[in-house]
Amino acid sequence: MNTFRAQGTIHLPSLEISNVSKAYGAIPVLEGISLAMEAREFIAFLGPSGSGKSTLLRIIAGLETLDEGEVRLDGERIDGLPPGRRGVAMVFQHYALYPHMSVRENMAFGLRNAGVPKAEIETRIAEAARVLEIESQLDKKPGQMSGGQRQRVAIGRAIVKQPKLFLLDEPLSNLDAALRMRTRIEIAQLRSRIDAAFIMVTHDQAEAMTLADRIVVMNDRRIQQIGAPMEIYARPANTFVARFVGSPAMTLAPATLVDGAGGYGRVRLGCGAEVDTRVARAGLPKGETLQLGLRPEMVAVAAPGAGTADGEVVLLERLGERTLVYARLSDGQEITAEDKGDSRLKVGETVGLRIDGAAAHLFGPDGAGHHAEAAQ
Amino acid sequence: MTSARDWRGLLFVAPFLSLYSLILIFPLFRGMWLSLNQVDLFGDGHFVGAGNYVRLAGDPVFATSLVNTFEVTLMIVPVLTILALLLALALNNAGKGAALLRGIFFSSAVLSVTIVTLVWRFVLAPDSGLLGELWKSLGWEPLAFLSAPGLVLPAIAVTTIWWSVGLPMLLFLAGLQQIPGDMYEAAALDDASRWTTFWRITLPSLRRTLVLVVMLQTAAQLQLFGQSQLLTAGGPSGASRTAVLFLFETAFGRWELGYASAAAEILFLIILAVTFLQYWSTTRATEGGDGR
Questions:
Q1: Which uninterrupted H or E stretch holds A58?
Q2: N or C: which end of chain A has fewer CB within 10 A?
Q3: What is the pTM of this model?
């Protein structure tokens, strides 16, 4: 997986985090975090509040110290350096622009501190302003600008430093929905023009899926899974990743392994229905309760009795092009199915649910994911 | 809008308005009127026009008191402002020690001027005071802070700074709390030294507080009175007589109420002019800074 530059030289991993741990007093916030980034890679730290993703970003930036482990950037160890000497630039969640300085001064401040010559500062600011289309705003103060414009200034302030690594802390969370979509596209375009690596912290899986080359899913102080967006979606490492990524969340139904033909696992649900999966039987723990993982698109609606099992419709969500059907099986297990946009179902009705076992996931008692072979 | 509704609206502000007129507006105009009359405690006096003002212009005691007032204000305000800012910077953290020290530094502000001057008399008295003993132990001649003409205003300034540092410190602390923490993080990522961070981030963010403190303190110190009256009674030979002490002596020592009112009007105009000048120069400076 080494990335080759145009010259053909092997490039070092841009950022390397090894075995980083951090605690606030007696409360651990990060445990044994290791991660290596490729050159020019875009990585998203995805996780719920309190998962440690922001702390990890702040450790890379130098705004927090680490208790154990190492952080290296382009081979150089940076975890002991002050934030301004690490070769990283950060875009803050609330922008953190200096309110009494003009846009130009905001961008020049870091460069002046670094002793960049005046002419060079002017050139870099002009270039960044051109790329971000804020040339006419350079003499304004942040207070005179809209949220979207401030966001651009915050990005501009990072660009002019020409860092090896950009750190983006929830960069889109302060924007309204329309602007968020536009800025997401702009960040993607920006990224293609800039020779640096990006790390973005987010709790929004759509942002992570659309922008990142790889997603680092975090929960409970640890990395749960590292992988490309579709890999995370198609082969979740455990039940947390399975439930956290994908909207609406994957259905997890308790199931027991039963005898069946072939080398694939056949499971029986609580309601008695049996599902043939394409998960290799050999790797599955025997005699234990498993969990069958079903994304909504794997469960179709049929006439009562015609599906794998029957269920009662509890809630319908009409999204236009499709309808999400939340149903309850005879043993009380809730399951999410998908129907066409103009579905005629009504709440309270009994429907047949046709489960497509070929794409289903199985999770062991330890939560570890086992996936259909076809998806490999 | 009918006129009846207008009247009902006025009724709501009437209690405040009548009290305000009675205790502020009326005395203000009464004072102006008094300053145009020759009045003593008995009788209504008689109108003298600008007579009191002409007399003030030629009164060397009044002139000296004004000079003293300016001198002591210039000694107090810059030092007080910088000291309050330094204390606020030093104590702007969440620790228990800092909270205790904040309380200690503020505590002098709650004392009455009588107690403050009493405390400082013990410090400043040449024969038995704290500083006198210190000087003697070093083998020096004790300095007569309260009776040497060159030392008395600095002594009053030090007393006043000790007394008044609490409130400006609190104002600066409140200003510091308003600065968002991520601005300092941004500055750290911009590789700003502590010195640069102070000059380019902290101080500009405190600009409004700074202007407020300087304006409040200037207006307050131009009216300095109690310290001078209680420590030295304006002595030696008028070296520490401030403008307010002058008008106090004129009004309640010599009972020349009209003359004292004229002095008060002049002091009022001076304070008004200085305050406006400060306001004007600070707002103009910001506008000039925008274009950079």
A1: helix A53-61
A2: N
A3: 0.82
